[in-house]
Design goal:
By secondary structure, the chain is mainly alpha-helical. It folds into 2 domains: 73 residues, Winged helix-like DNA-binding domain superfamily/Winged helix DNA-binding domain (Arc Repressor Mutant, subunit A, Orthogonal Bundle), CATH 1.10.10.10; 148 residues, GntR ligand-binding domain-like (Four Helix Bundle (Hemerythrin (Met), subunit A), Up-down Bundle), CATH 1.20.120.530. Helices cover 64% and strands 3% of the residues. The chain contains 9 helices and 2 strands. The chain is globular. It starts with 7 loop residues before the first helix and ends with a helix. GO terms for molecular function: DNA binding; DNA-binding transcription factor activity. Keywords: DNA-binding, Transcription, Transcription regulation. InterPro entries: GntR_C, TF_FadR/GntR_C, Tscrpt_reg_HTH_GntR, WH-like_DNA-bd_sf, WH_DNA-bd_sf. Pfam families: FCD, GntR.
Length: 248
């Protein structure tokens, strides 16, 4: 695959910058400093003002959009539409410590993300393709070092959702946040029993998705994402069983 490799540290730094910028913009909106109806500064202006990349600005704005504070209007810019946070996502109350809830969420993700992968293969821009590749390379590096891969795993799925160029897919994943990658939340030591074989299988599945998207293979991307998430159902069951056994 082509694309400039990203380090795990770089990906982590980007996430931190996104959170910092989103927090600053959110505070300005909630305080009334930027009133409802007002247009936010352009992407270029925010990039210059805060000394961050355009990608950081886009992700920060996306976070505010998922919170119901702003909306993008075609050809006009991003406008503030509320100065109070909404009651949160309907998924906030889902208890992923319960295997039944986790499996229900995985089934729901299959319904959404399989189509997202196909659309990403058809619509991705060169920059979006590069982001998918870079995130995957960072994920591989962290996994090889034995680190916590959940955040970068989420970033990979989010990069695929963004490559659809339909913001609703991105908003769905953002509403889940870290709950989309629940293995660290399974409890009972489940995260501790994740094996090298587990990550090797994940790597194969992730690369199959990315390769199909890069090749513009819509059907192949859908099949690869379906296989990945369906296998996830089975793996989470296995993780729960291993964790339960380790407690006895």
């Amino acid at each position: 695959m082509a694309g400039k490799p990203a380090t795990a540290q770089g990906a982590g730094e980007r996430r931190s910058l996104v959170q910092s910028l989103a927090s600053q913009l959110r505070a300005s909106i909630l305080s009334g400093e930027v009133p409802v109806g007002v247009k936010l500064p352009s992407e270029a202006m925010l990039t210059a003002q805060h000394g961050v990349s355009r990608t950081v600005v886009r992700e920060a704005i996306s976070a505010l959009r998922s919170e119901g504070l702003v909306e993008a209007r075609q050809g006009a810019g991003v406008f503030v539409i509320a100065n109070t946070l909404s009651g949160g996502s309907a998924f906030d109350a889902v208890d992923l410590q319960k295997l039944s809830n986790l499996l229900e969420m995985m089934e729901f993700r299959i319904a959404i993300e399989v189509e997202a992968a196909g659309l990403a293969a058809a619509r991705r821009s060169p920059a979006q393709e590069a982001t998918i590749i870079e995130t995957l390379e960072a994920l591989d590096k962290v996994a090889a070092a034995g680190g916590e891969t959940g955040p970068l795993d989420f970033d990979f799925h989010l990069a695929v959702a963004r490559a659809t160029n339909n913001p609703r897919f991105e908003q769905f994943l953002e509403s889940l946040g870290g709950r989309a990658i629940p293995r660290a939340r399974l409890g009972g030591g489940a995260a501790a029993v994740v094996s090298g074989q587990y990550y090797a299988q994940l790597r194969t599945e992730h690369h199959s998705i990315a390769d199909a998207i890069s090749a513009g293979d819509e059907d192949g991307a859908r099949q690869a994402m379906r296989r990945h998430l369906t296998n996830g159902l089975r793996r989470y069951r296995a993780l729960r069983r291993k964790a339960a056994m380790s407690e006895h």
